[in-house]
Sequence to fold (383 residues):
Amino acid sequence: MKAHLKLTFLCLQLLIGTIWATPATDRQKIRAYYQQLFPQLTLADYADGVYAIDPIAKSSWLAIEEFPPYEIALEQGKTLFKQAFTNGKHYADCFPNQGIAIAQNYPYWDTATQSIITLASAINNCRRQNQMPPLSYGAGEITQIMAYMAYTSRGKRIQTDIPAQSSAALAAYEQGKAYFYKRRGQLNFSCASCHIDNAGKYIRSEMLSPALGHTTHWPAYRLNTGEMSTLHRRFEVCNELIRAKVDPAQSKALRQLEYFLSYMANGLPLNGPATRK
Amino acid sequence: MAKRSSIKIRSKRFADHTLVRTLIAHPMETGLNKDKDTGELIPEHYIQSLTFSHNGKLMSECHLGFGISKNPFFSFKLKSAQAGDTVVISWQDNLGYSDTLEHHIQ
Fold:
């Protein structure tokens, strides 16, 4: 009888837990989980991704960062950013503070369009407003412009809000969270399978990074391709690897995922552009 | 505005040597890659010779092939370099393009 009562009580607690799971409590839970997994790390350390927990990879990464390969893209990005559109306007005219030191405010919930605006989509919105063809997401020019914008925002702390008065914003966050935890693909993996449950363990030769801080260091120069790459391109590759349907970069699902991850990483310093394996 | 050099050079002095590092922006096409849109082979375009000189004296002449990566990175160790010394790095590729940059050791 007593055991029965206990079980009912537990069920009730679980029920209340799920109903009352607000974004803030989700964030607390994830951080507490990583805290017991990697007690040696401070919150800001998570901005370094897997290098925070892999000392061997970190030493070679630090050596690369002394003369980082993304500098070429950074310079090109600066030139592109300052170039005028055909109508004489600039990227700077589309963004608050002339586009300098603002990357930490993305992604954000836009009440006018009822959608999540990421930095990449904001760049293309800016181009559309100025009668320029949008850039393709994932590689090329957009990574260079983002590299420059991220560089000017280095050290700024991520500020992703979920506006309290907007239920649609909360729904978008919840969908992003669901995407993160939902198993899919032939291998039946979720994002969480690797980056929560097995963070810090090896998958063949590579160590799995914690999900906290996944949004801090983009765009990144990937050593495996020798190209600059975006967060959404990385999401695509993850889905390819688990043999799932690939949601294209900047699709609604991936923007919601970015919104969720970015909210988890609130307060972490931006350190992009970066070099990653 | 002057065109930006394709070469970047940085140097660092240590107790017994000076490390000079360089990053060169170059496509380093092998001639075996295909253009994704047209399916045509991209003609080979790679650096053939890279020279490194210290105070006007040629220290190293490297003959490169298409096996070297895109945007290649090289580093050189100098045994007897002083602050203010000049190093010059220049390259020439198979299509006749070239670039050169002078750098003063700090």
